[in-house]
Model the fold of this input.
Amino acid sequence: MSFIDSRLAFRLMSTSQDEQIQQRKANLEALTALGVPAYPSKFERRDTITTLVDAHSPKSGEALEAERPETVTSGRILAMRSFGKANFLVLSDGRSRLQVYIRQDSMPDLDFRIFKHLDFGDWVGVEGRLFRTKTNELTIWASRLHFLSKCLLPLPEKWHGLTDVETRYRQRYLDLIVNPDSRRVFETRSKVVSAIRSFMTERGYLEVETPMMQAIAGGALARPFVTHHNALDMQLYLRIAPELYLKRLTVGGLERVFEINRNFRNEGISTQHNPEFTMMEFYQAYSDYQDLMVMTEELIATVARQATGSDQITFGDHQISLAAPFARLSLREGARDAASAKLGRAIDPQELRNRESAAAIATALGIEVKPGYGAGKIATEIFERLCEDRLVQPTFVYDFPTEVSPLSKQRPDDPDTVERFELYIGGFEVANAFSELNDPVEQRRRFEDQLKDRASGDLEAHAMDEDYVRALEYGLPPTAGEGLGIDRLVMLLTNSPSIRDVILFPLMRRRAEGD
RNA sequence: GGGCCAGUAGCUCAAUUGGCAGAGCAGCAGACUCUUAAUCUGCGGGUUGAAGGUUCGAUUCCUUCCUGGCUCACCA
Done:
């Protein structure tokens, strides 16, 4: 440790913590003095704690006495209780916990001396047989004890655990050690991803990976992160969406593709937004947005059942049914009904189609109308402001204004409206889908509209992507596509109020020193 | 970025109008042959987020800053 490091350590560490570290180091040195390797390279365990608990929990004490099952297992010490000659450890493999009974006359002298130098948090291996104590607790009667690794820092307390959210996010390993619920959230997240993956592959979708670093950040309306490639001396963006690449693949004849991966958007952070977040995006030829509504209902309900065992969930104060079918609500009708109720007068559908009257309604509702807003954008603003957080039960909001959907196909009977829906659950957006615009001439016109917004200062407006237009010129079959927010779906399925609770290492501000 | 709230021992939390900074768990020493938040006895542990200010005296009041939470704005 350098001079500067030790000064830093001195400043960051209180005496209490430093004392406990010194005591733990002393225990490690005592083990070394006994000839015990401080950090052995391997331990051959026969069973995990979880398999032991699962296999033997149903058995009575008598049954275990008859069977006398032997095991070799390992874990982290989460509790120690000593009674002179009778000692107990609680071992955890991260998922399950199992008690170990330690007594001097049941194991080699060296092993018992190892036990004397163990600390709360150490990793150990145990050999022994399973039995039940007088209080009927499934326990390993240890015949051997092996030291595996040291915990040098004091762990959070066993009863209250770790509740400080900042520490839970910054030092997720501590959260996982002491909060079993946190572990469960991430196990559910893993199940959600595998359930989605099998749902898609079973239906003939090909899983692909497209660039995370893109010269043009397209496929969504958002501000990107900027980076740089040295050898090519090239400015690159972290992708805000994989959309344009996935549709290029559909042009190339991959009729059903999906990708589960990260998107990066350089925007605000909130309980529903992390700068990097995970989306499943998929495209399927010969389909439209109506087909995707049906498929999405099935997907959500199936994934919920596979990941949580039920399609009925509790989210905050709400009971939500994820069973199909979901409600359907036209965006303009929703906006009109909500505005009518709020303003106390019946609004005619045409009023939201006309910029002047729509702007008047928005202003009456206290919603700001910026100069660039057309009637479609205004209607969308009204909807988001008045309706969005009321959509707790799954609801498909459909028929978006063309103005806010530069990549979606127009309805044949209504060029101001596109064939698009967003799925809302729990008051926030979970999915966004549309019939893909495949007319290259119209796509170029939409990009040019976006360029005008860009020129007038809209940093989120879409850039021109000549190669994407060229791909469309080769011909994209009728195709529908969708993006599904994995983090938000996991929030719903784990009853997590913040997106940070379902991301292992959410982005945090850098601390000045140390952690 | 705005508003509100919070930061005290390793962890979870107290501290009266501004008057000696405490408890439980964890740690250390000891007792104890089946406990499970074990119990009992004793002990150690603090730059009260940081810097300044007011005051005889600041965890407490004021200012600025740091970090986090909620919320609004933006967004998915």
